[in-house]
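Hello,

I think I submitted the magnesium ion job twice by accident. Can you confirm which output corresponds to this input? Input:
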Amino acid sequence: MNRPDNDGASAPDEPTQPKVSKPSNDSLQADLAKESASTKDAVIDQEPAVLKHERVTASREDTVLQREDTVTSREDTVQMREDTADAREKSVELREVSVQLREKAAALTEMTLEDHQLAEQLQTAKDQLDHLAYYDRLTDLPNRLLVQDRLSQAIEGAHAQNARLAVMVLDLDRFKHINDSLGHAVGDLLLQSVAHRLIESVRPSDTISRQGGGEFVLLFATIEQAEEAARYAQKILAALALPHRIDRYDLHITVSIGISLYPEDGLDTETLIRSAETALYVAKRTGRNHYQFFEQDMTSRAIQRQAIEASLRRALERQEFVLHYQPKINLHTGTIAGVEALIRWQHPKQGLVMPAQFVPIAEDSGLILPIGRWVMREACLQARAWREAGGLPITMAVNTSTLEFSDKDFIKNIQAILAETGLKPPCLELELTETVLMQNTESSESVLQALTDIGIKLAIDDFGTGYSSLSYLQQFPIHTLKIDQAFVRRMTGSPDDATIVTAVINMAKSLKLGVIAEGVETREHCAFLRDQQCDEGQGYYFSRPTAAEALTPLMNVGTKYGC
Ligand code: C2E
Ligand code: MG
Ligand code: MG
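Support: Only one job matched these inputs. Its output is below.
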């Protein structure tokens, strides 16, 4: 650190003045250390040794002058007077120097004290920097660096003792959505709440670290069996599932956990963390809200998925996606009431790839957002084209995934597409699963209301397979229930499924909702549904999903389908 240069304030050149070297800070500090009781003022009042030496030298000269005065000639006397005057002058100058030096010494002492304070401040700043380098600012948990360090130590320990350890990578499901919809301040408080519950769920000897975003890494340095790690994972899932009271919200969150074990899933820090991340990835893909141990073949599957993800990106650019349309039949009149747009990937080598093979990957990677926009635009253009070609007024149904639904630009994008294509909002229907709706009930309600206000229709897809509470049916502005095909497929053979289908139809009627059955494959299915007063049916019995051109003639003549 630069200090002001005191030399600039030193006394003018003095031939008689002994050379006073500026005391170094070090020596002053050493002096200070010796005289521990000395305060700043006390030091100022002391006469530095070097000044005492000055004075002694000056008074000796005076004495010599006086003695010689008595024996010298007139010239000498004059000379001596001049000398005496000179000496007095020098004495005055010396005193001035003395004062100046005292001041300098005081200044230096002050500097030394400041140095002490500065050193302390520096140490504090350094400690804080060290803390920042190894701890997460938001949660004060160890960060990525520190947990890696601890993990490598734990690996050494486990190696030496022939013991096991477990690494968990935990990620908040759809954390981005919470941040986007409720704001980062709420997101931050939620992370702190999660950190707190994690601390309470594990042993003090275990390390919990935050990696960034909604991701945490946990290190269990001593684990006897894989089951022990599983028990901790269950405990953590349960602890985090309880509502988090943040601000005015009761946030219900889920997390996914990937677990790797030493030595079977990796012998070093990097491999163990990567294995746990791979397991996490699988946990996310297979429904979230659970834990998953690493398995060896996951790595090759993960590589395969990465390859699919890369080619999906290219598919979008090269326009390899196509939409097929499956009619929905009005069971009372037998006419086409609408169609559902279903995406396919026309792969240059693999041929037609079905959505089950790529939609989940598109959802995980976020690619579903541009893909979904493409689907929406393409479907609306097709609906408009059929209408312009003189087809019957039909509804175009488009499937909507969670990520799309929670995208902040979702409504804006739909409005832009409707404006661009000229399709009337009531001709568009969104199919949403119960899972999509229940992810965030508060924001779902407002999004659904906004969509309804625009005039867009809303249907619950795969009804009966998701959320067990029906209260949301009153809460949300829904128009249609779409009975899941699993019930429909079994209803003519299983009385239980028949009861469920009948109950859903009746419930829809009493709630004044439309009802449609998907997966109608046989004449019996069709007849059963018609007898139960189900409004619409959709399935292979009527038509498989097909390219638009194949459907165009059927649209125009108003084809009738019967049981
Ligand atoms: P979903 O929306 O429930 O669509 C119904 C699925 O059942 C479709 O499969 C359809 O081809 C199939 N299906 C229709 N009738 C029958 C039948 O009688 N029997 C049987 N066994 N199956 C029938 P697909 O086209 O493979 O789509 C699967 C899922 O992929 C869809 O389920 C939907 O969740 C998703 N999906 C399709 N297209 C899109 C899209 O554009 N965007 C999004 N986000 N998801 C899509
Ligand atoms: Mg659907
Ligand atoms: Mg469905």
